[in-house]
Amino acid sequence: MYTDNARISHRQLFRQIIAGLLGVYFLVVPVLPEITGRQGVFCLLTGGGIYGFLSIYFIRIRNFFQDPEKYLGRLWGKLYILFYTSWLWLMGVYLLLMTARITGKFLIEGSDSWIVILLSAFAAYLGSHQGLERRGRMAEVAFPVLLLILGGMVVLAALQVKPEYLEETGGLSFFGWIKGSWEILCVFLPFGFLPAALGSVKKPGDTGKVIWGAIGLITGLLILVLIILQGSFGLGGYEHEEYPAARLMSGIRLPGDFLERVDLFWVAAAVFGILFSLGSVFFYSHELLARVHLEKTALMAGAAVVLAAVACEKAGISTDFFIGITMELYGPLFFFLLILAGVGGRKRKFIKAGLLFFPLLLLSGCGISLEDRVFPLSMGVEYENGHYQVVYGIPQLSEVTGQSKEGGESGEEQALVYEGMTLQDAQERFDENQENYLDMGHIKALILGKKLLEDREAMGGLLGFLEENPAVAGNIYVFAAEDMEEVMSLEGQGTDSLGDYLTGILENTLEKKEKQAVVLQDLYGAWHREEEFPELSEVTVVNKKPGIRQHS
Q1: The pLDDT of residue 214 is above 90
Q2: DSSP letter at 495?
Q3: In this structure, are residues 407 and 394 in contact, taking their beta carbons and an 8 Å threshold?
């Protein structure tokens, strides 16, 4: 299966992840301080599980990384990407140092490190400029060979296991588990670049299983390596090694002893994986810079990475230095940037403040108080003459919290229509007329107009907008309406919140068969699979009160 139109298939995405990360992780993870024994297994399961669940979020924020300037503006979009890409450059230096030191220790003894660095950088940089399609095909070809050598030899290494060593359980503490899980989260940071890569994948909304599969395979093999290392050397017998997995492979003997140094094949495969990962560093560095119109600086950035690697090698800087920076600085920074991507375009001032005052935010935290938010409990959308029409059903805060006061105004119109060519434009119109932050995390009902439902392209725009917003839950009930504005005008007009009222009708008064209403997640599924949208229950207005009629 090959690519077309500069997009890679799900299989190619899976194989690129494995090809670029498996060899690196085999060398790095076993020497992390807290990743030993049963504690190491629990930490790997925790870290891998967290990234697996984050895959849903990564899919939702992918469009942000396709055009950051659209969401943040030119200056702040560039600043965001520079922060985001700086870890790639740091890892480029780290991978070059690792390549030089592994080559000198296992493959070409006495080789000049600076020559290895230059040749490795040159090969990886050329590979990174072969285009997205060729990199996808390269991963297709390399994957089975790498998996056979790297994974197959790990299985062969199990023959060295001594059962008595496996009886040692090792230490396990709550703080050790927390610290070890954080180590795994930081070492697994390359998965944090998936939102930037998913825009170049076919049907990106369906990549959740691919990401889970890649994380599951890597985590499972790393757990197997930890168990085999303990079974071969015992706890405390390998932690002092710089690359214990390479030492493990040196003890493998094939039947007949026709090859005495089969470990060299494993090391060579690991180095190839490192070079593939290095090529990804250069490739995505260029891609991200190009998305903020800084592609002319990519070559200079690559040269700086190489020069920094040579300088670090001459100075004898340990690779542990880069792991430490990742855990202490880039781990918090990266997760913070990913959170900002989720709110990008909806609160630009919040993004700018976060980028400027990140160190302060790490120490003191940040947030928007409840009194500075508005909480729509329903949302109506129609599409007419090329424009979206959006109504937010926002009850008075006193009514929502049950703190209504006597003498308060009643019957005040709450439903105002905001228009725009896109949903983002309509929301910006809302922001221009409101001093409070629009928090869409409490919406209970989504009312769609008939004209919108008849236009699949417009429906795709709506669903894409909602899916990118992590605050919008997938279990929101979805209804149709002949006149969306008439229905939404009932908000605050003598009824409870429209969202609460419709939810109450569904859950408390209708027969069991009628309660099988459509939720937003059902529309997402039909949209991504290019199926017909399910029939929606229709909201009608009778005696100035909403009612539900099955089906539209």
Answers
A1: yes
A2: S
A3: no
C-alpha 58/C-alpha 222 separation (Å) is 23
**Residue 479 domain-assigned (yes or no):** yes
Question: Can you tell me which residue has the tokens 């160190």?
Answer: 359
How would you label 287-305 residue by residue, b for 16+ Cβ within 10 Å and e otherwise? bbbebbebeeebeebbeeb
Counted domains in the chain: 2
Contacts with 300 (C-beta within 8 Å, 6 or more apart), sequence order? none
3-state helix/strand/coil string of 182-244: HHHHHHCHHHHHHHHHHHHECCHHHCHHHHHHHHHHHHHHHHHHHHHHHHHHCCCCCCCCCCH
User: How far is the C-alpha of 227 from the C-alpha of 243, rounded, in Å?
Assistant: 16
100: in domain: yes
Residues 447 and 317 occupy one common structural domain:
no
Categorise residue 179: left if φ over 0, alpha if ψ from -120 to 50, beta otherwise.
Answer: alpha
What is the average pLDDT score of the chain? 81
d(CA 138, CA 299) in angstroms, rounded, equals 23
Higher pLDDT, 529 or 366: 529
What the block records as the tokens of 275 is 């070079």
Q: Is 416 helix (H, G, I), strand (E, B) or coil?
A: coil
Confidence at residue 513, expressed as pLDDT on a 0 to 100 scale = 47
Q: Are 536 and 479 in contact (CB under 8 A)?
A: yes
Q: Would the pTM of this model clear 0.70, i.e. be above it? A: no
Report the alpha-carbon distance of residue 436 to residue 424 in Å, rounded.
17
Q: In this structure, which amino acid lies at residue 529?
A: R
Q: Which domain holds residue 538?
A: 372-401+413-549
Cβ within 8 Å of residue 383, ≥6 positions away: 389, 449, 451, 452, 455, 458, 462
What whole-number distance in Å separates Cα of residue 440 and Cα of residue 466? 10
222-246 pLDDT, tens digit each: 999 999 988 888 877 777 778 888 8
pLDDT at 411 over 60: no
Q: What is the DSSP string of 449-464?
A: EHHHHT-HHHHHHHHH
**Cβ(221)–Cβ(154) below 8 Å:** yes
Name the packing angle between helices 456-468 and 520-528 (round to 10°). Answer: 120
CA-CA distance, 59 to 522, in Å (whole number)? 17
Question: What letter does residue 97 receive in the DSSP assignment?
Answer: H
CATH number, domain of 88, equals 1.20.1740.10
Identify the pLDDT of residue 396. Answer: 58
Tokens of 320: 């542990």
CA distance linking residue 230 with residue 215, whole number of Å: 23
The per-residue pLDDT for range 321-346, each reduced to its tens digit, is: 889 899 999 999 888 888 888 775 45
Closest by Cα among 47, 366, 64 to 189: 47
Single out the residue of 522, 169, 87, 129 nearest to residue 338, CA to CA.
Answer: 87
- Residue 396 domain-assigned (yes or no): yes
Question: Is the domain of 104 the same as that of 159?
Answer: yes
Asked if 460 and 385 sit in the same domain, the reply is yes
